[in-house]
């Protein structure tokens, strides 16, 4: 199968007053059409820099991509100009960020923000854009969508705001959603609802999702494939079963062992009973894959 997204040998440096920081080194990562891949690792491991590179959002300041290609549908995104990247962002790759409050503009209604994104990417009249905006809100199961179109971000709960962010990301039916810690800012019950929504979207629309997370609860709940990062490098790649049940790399084993008991309990409470077994490393509810691919 041709990968939807293929990152090849990506290296990113930051040139700071204190010297050069090798934030991402020789990273290879693929997302196949329709799959949900988790990119997991501790803070500072290079997850966000990798995902910002995909979106062309590293900024022109101190960051430098020193090697690699980022192929999306076969095209190298690193060769695209700003205009080309604006078409990709929102049009073909939707972004769901951690903080819905900062992702939304406080001075515009939800409807206006959705309509703006749709009209930016699609050559449609205002009425068609409004209909598409409403469809997007219904897709993310925001209750009372017609009334919510006129609401401002501060009038919604945290979970509702994150649904709106997902609606905006999906409004143009992108092939890939890039979700950077999509549930970190939410409480456990709402986290589960948002993760279930991402699963529904994946199943119903076939949208591939790359989830950046430090949380194995998120991985266990939604990811079919997992890539583990440490110090800017990929240390292990495998199916969810490989990584959760049979981690090969000592770093992944350590991360799994370090998931505190209390934290596990919170995560267990946040996911359906049928999936809780994942945390007990049982075999029957998860796909059996080959051995994971481990780097030194
Ligand atoms: N603007 C910047 N200037 C200098 N160094 C940076 C900058 N942004 C990131 N880095 C460095 O790049 C490395 C990777 O950071 P990155 O934000 O990708 O990690 P992360 O795994 O996403 O962690 P977190 O979950 O905390 O965001 C870290 O060493 C970080 O300090």
TrEMBL record:
InterPro entries attached to this UniProt entry: AAA+_ATPase, ABC_Ni/Peptide_Import, ABC_transporter-like_ATP-bd, ABC_transporter-like_CS, Oligopep_ABC_C, P-loop_NTPase
Subcellular location: Cell membrane
CDD domains: ABC_NikE_OppD_transporters (cd03257)
Alphabetically ordered keywords of this record: ATP-binding, Cell membrane, Membrane, Nucleotide-binding, Transport
Membrane topology of the entry: Peripheral membrane protein
Segments forming domain ABC transporter: 5-256
Database matches in Pfam families: ABC_tran, oligo_HPY
UniProt GO molecular function: ATP binding
Signal peptide: none
Protein family: Belongs to the ABC transporter superfamily.
Entry protein name: ABC transporter ATP-binding protein
Native organism: Rhodococcoides yunnanense
Upper classification of the organism: Bacteria, Bacillati, Actinomycetota, Actinomycetes, Mycobacteriales
């Amino acid at each position: 199968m041709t990968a939807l997204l293929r990152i090849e040998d990506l290296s990113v440096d930051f040139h700071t007053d204190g010297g050069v920081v090798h934030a991402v080194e020789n990273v290879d990562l693929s997302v196949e059409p329709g799959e949900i891949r988790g990119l997991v690792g501790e803070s500072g491991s290079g997850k966000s820099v990798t995902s910002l590179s995909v979106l062309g959002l590293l900024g022109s300041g101190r960051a430098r991509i020193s090697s690699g290609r980022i192929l999306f549908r076969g095209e190298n995104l690193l060769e695209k100009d700003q205009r080309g990247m604006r078409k990709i962002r929102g049009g073909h790759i939707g972004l769901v960020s951690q903080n819905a409050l900062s992702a939304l503009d406080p001075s515009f209604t939800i409807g206006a923000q959705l309509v703006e994104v749709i009209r930016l990417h699609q050559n449609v009249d205002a009425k068609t854009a409004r209909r598409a905006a409403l469809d997007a809100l219904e897709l993310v199961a925001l209750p009372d969508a017609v009334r919510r179109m006129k609401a401002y971000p501060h009038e919604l709960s945290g979970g509702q705001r994150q649904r709106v962010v997902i609606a905006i990301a999906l409004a143009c039916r992108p092939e890939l959603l890039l979700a950077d810690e999509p549930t970190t800012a939410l409480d456990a019950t709402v986290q589960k609802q948002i993760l279930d929504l991402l699963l529904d979207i994946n199943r119903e629309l076939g949208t591939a999702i790359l989830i950046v997370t430090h949380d194995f609860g998120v991985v266990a709940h939604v990811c079919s494939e997992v890539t583990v990062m440490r110090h800017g490098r990929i240390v292990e790649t495998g199916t969810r079963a490989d990584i959760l049940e049979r981690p090969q790399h000592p770093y992944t084993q350590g991360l799994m062992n370090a998931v505190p008991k209390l934290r596990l309990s919170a995560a267990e409470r946040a996911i359906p009973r049928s999936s809780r077994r994942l945390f007990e490393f049982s075999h029957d509810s998860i796909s059996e894959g080959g051995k994971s691919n481990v780097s030194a």
